[in-house]
């Protein structure tokens, strides 16, 4: 049912989990970095560490756990750690706060290393925080993750309503899995807990959590993807439930102001009993109040800078040889999930137009496109992957010579070290999504551009463009001619201009890095608690509309 115009309402060890899910006392907590005003519980679909069986390794016995078995005791277990994106960004934060992370356990050996509460200490060997895993059935995953999350909410929020697939039972499973996440949170939450949900997989959980945790707990949510306009959101199946669920939060964050304002517009239009204050960005609904904020996320810039400075020249040579790229070629780089929102076919069309217009660059410039297969169980993604691969083949056949191809394409796994090696080597990075909530790749590239003479070509439809657009080369990803012209400008730009632009970009990325973003989130959490205290004392919690000052 569509939304009507108005709606009612790799060694493995365990540690002992305390009753509140935190593995160490406050006196033992890590220091340094932003501090959370309470016990932090991060809730996300994806887990930060995954345990897998390594049949090639020597037999070993797991370290107990309620789910361990005779089979597990004879098989070696390895741990996959986060290499990018949201989980990699939040992992160091949860380490510092000695918190709890609740996520879907999708690794083959995940539940052979957990205790009777499905908890395991991570990272292995360090044991900085507790990971609580949810064991989901194949049917649940198909309907909750591949169904409502990625067949409805993902295309809807990215402006592709024609790609929505409203399958029967998907939403009911989405609700059921959100209930399971909420139940897990209730097991760990205390009165001082800060419960911080991540992204679109958990839109219903905030209201469920609010009804099941102590009143003093703070419930917050960061929505990492775009938010659609009201005419687009109207096409969301169960859209009223999505809005009501998100209004269970005390704080709801987006990357950019446009998405925050769109959310408020949707609430205003589709929930008639909600009171929306657009100036203060607050919503009063069903006895609660939600503050909506825009706080652009950064990356661990210092880590990318450090890794880029320590690259192995031999590894760079190996990568170039592996992808048949001449050592002295001018190199362009694209790094994306194989998703229809990332604009890869449009990028390939611009590269083709560039070589049509600039035959002198043939043999001198190679574009390396790294694409990571994603959600391949969904037919739309399968077709998109086929399209990208066929376009790469067609363009290469059109322009290639015996010793040169215009596009080097790979779907290989690349380590963080490999990625930083390519970031530093690339003369131009192309980030051209059709729409993107933020885009951390653009910021990673800038942080890794330690030589300062590279160029960022950036879509004006990314959240990152608000921070970086003035000194990147801006493109409209569907304007093939304009896109090609900006590629030419990037490759022909004088060295002094490249350095001037990159110097400013680096200043902005470092000033707005991950730690700065986290400090802003924690400042908001503190302010919410202060406002709650003033309300309890009888004062008006809406009287001060000033936002916390972002740390420098």
What's a quick, concise take on this entry?
The protein is α/β, with parallel strands linked by helices. The protein has helices spanning 85-97, 138-157, 170-188, 205-210, 230-233, 239-246, 257-270, 301-309, 313-322, 344-357, 379-399, 416-425, 440-448, 465-468, 480-492, 495-511, 514-536; strands spanning 40-43, 50-54, 76-80, 100-104, 119-122, 129-134, 194-198, 218-222, 251-254, 275-277, 282-285, 288-294, 330-337, 365-372, 407-410, 428-431, 455-459, 473-475.
The helicity comes to 25-40%
Q: How are strands sequenced across the largest beta sheet?
A: 5-6-4-1-7-8-9-12-11-10
Structural class: alpha/beta
Give the low-confidence spans. Answer: 1-31, 57-66, 68-72
Strands, total number:
18
Separate helix tally? 17
How far from one another are the termini?
A: 47 Å
Shape: globular
Mean pLDDT: 89
Largest sheet descriptor: 10 strands, mixed
Percent of residues in β-strands: 15-25%
Give me the Rg, rounded.
24 Å
Protein name: Trehalose-6-phosphate synthase
Pfam families: Glyco_transf_20 (PF00982)
GO molecular function: alpha,alpha-trehalose-phosphate synthase (UDP-forming) activity; trehalose-phosphatase activity
InterPro entries: Glyco_trans_20
Description of the molecule:
The chain is globular. 39% of the residues lie in helices and 16% in strands. Helix 2 crosses helix 3, helix 8 crosses helix 12 and helix 10 (344-357) packs across helix 15 (480-492). It is an alpha/beta fold and 552 residues long. The protein is built from 17 helices and 18 strands. Mean pLDDT is 89; it is low at 1-31, 57-66 and 68-72. The strands form three sheets. It has a ten-stranded mixed β-sheet, with helices on both faces. The chain has a six-stranded parallel β-sheet with strand order 15-14-13-16-17-18, with helices on both faces. A two-stranded antiparallel sheet has the order 2-3. Strand 11 and strand 12 form a beta hairpin. It holds the Pfam family Glyco_transf_20. Residues 68-77 have a biased composition (Polar residues). It comes from Natrinema thermotolerans.
